[in-house]
Design brief:
alpha/beta, TIM Barrel, 7-stranded parallel beta sheet, 9 helices
Length: about 280
């Protein structure tokens, strides 16, 4: 089976306080058309008032607009319908906010939580408006700190999956030095903490034009015994399942024969479909 375990509902005429059943139905319709069997819907934690102050950037603070309870009730309603959908949150890891993040994530019984690193200090590594500030810090320092935070996110025990695991390449500026040691150290922590890594296809739709992470990182994770999930990182129904065939080919090429998805914080393995 194929599970797309990273979807957001946000780029439509609705908000987390009033998602109708018909909006999710459009995601399911695209999933069927693209051969995806199961969905994993998450919302960015920074969208919720209860997460205000947990992220170190004014960009995020300005977006804490909605109450968490209506989204949780939407989740409960969809679960009662028996749909092939799991629900959760995508939460940024910020070491200074670790205790508060834990409290926030415990407010409702999610199926899974994606752990992300979007911020190095208060610089958003994927924010176009922060590119000049990132350049002042320097690419080597950005990448080094990014992997340090990724490992701390895994060590925190708060998350089920490390998502878009080499995000700083988003604008196409790849490091000119090898990252093998960072990949190996991070993969070893993920394995020790029993956390999955994500094969995220959104990079195909970004300036970098490739999947997160690079094949070397996935191959190292495979050798370390790290489970893998697939996510399109769709923010609208039209991109559900986008790039999944490319992800399947990449995973097969580095030796994966299973992916994982989650129900009730329980990890479920599924065999990859046979390749061409």
């Amino acid at each position: 089976m194929i599970a797309d375990q990273h979807l957001h509902l946000e780029r439509g005429p609705y908000t987390p306080e009033n998602y109708p059943d018909e909006w999710l139905a459009r995601y399911l319709e695209t999933a069927r058309a693209t051969g995806v069997d199961r969905l994993g819907v998450v919302e960015h934690a920074y969208r919720f008032r209860e997460a205000h102050g947990l992220l170190p950037n004014a960009w995020a603070d300005a977006r804490c607009l909605y109450r968490l309870e209506p989204y949780a009730k939407f989740v409960e309603r969809q679960r009662s319908r028996g749909l092939p959908v799991s629900f959760g949150l995508e939460m940024d890891y910020v070491p200074e906010s670790e205790e508060g993040i834990g409290r926030f994530l415990s407010l409702y019984p999610w199926d899974f939580v994606l752990g992300s690193v979007h911020f190095v200090g208060d610089v958003g590594v994927d924010l176009a408006e922060d590119r000049a500030r990132a350049a002042e810090i320097g690419p080597r320092a950005i990448w080094q700190r990014y992997f340090e935070l990724s490992r701390r996110a895994a060590e925190s025990g708060l998350f089920d999956v490390l998502t878009h695991p080499d995000l700083p390449k988003i604008f196409g500026e790849r490091p000119s030095w090898p990252l093998t040691e960072e990949f190996e150290r991070t993969a070893n922590v993920l394995r020790a903490k029993d956390m999955a890594i994500e094969c995220n296809t959104a990079g195909l739709r970004k300036p970098v034009g490739e999947i997160y992470p690079v094949p070397e990182y996935l191959a190292i994770a495979r050798r370390a015994g790290v489970p893998v999930s697939i996510g399109s990182d769709a923010h609208e129904p039209e991109t559900v399942g986008a790039g999944v065939d490319a992800a399947l080919g990449l995973l097969r090429s580095v030796g994966y024969d299973q992916t994982v998805h989650f129900i009730g914080r329980r990890r479920i393995q599924a065999d990859l479909p046979a390749g061409a």
